[in-house]
Hints:
Layout: H1 3-6, H2 9-22, E1 26-30, E2 35-39, H3 45-56, H4 60-71, H5 86-92, H6 95-119
Amino acid sequence: MSNETKQSPIGKIAQHYQSAIGGEMSKLSIPEWDMEIYCRKTYPFREEAKIIELQSKGKTVDALVESLIVKALDKDGKKIFTSFDRISLMNEADPSIIVRVVGEINSVEERSKIEDLVKE
């Protein structure tokens, strides 16, 4: 009997998640900010929960900024922004750039799925 057959459903789910969260990060160039942002294919549900809650309350701008704070990483996988940066991001950053960057971060998972299909 193989390990795959013995593994519980939760074990399989956790293994897939660890593979996705620990995999290679994608790099996004943000020329307007003269910086590179890295991001993962997925994020913990507990981090997505606040973003989803803000969206459900109609607080789209807050959700976008929260998404940037949670998902924008440096090359070592550490968050670039903190909750203390929220006010500056909401008042001193070009909204169109934030929307574009968050859109690119959120589309990384879709690009990864397409790349996986091409490999098959």
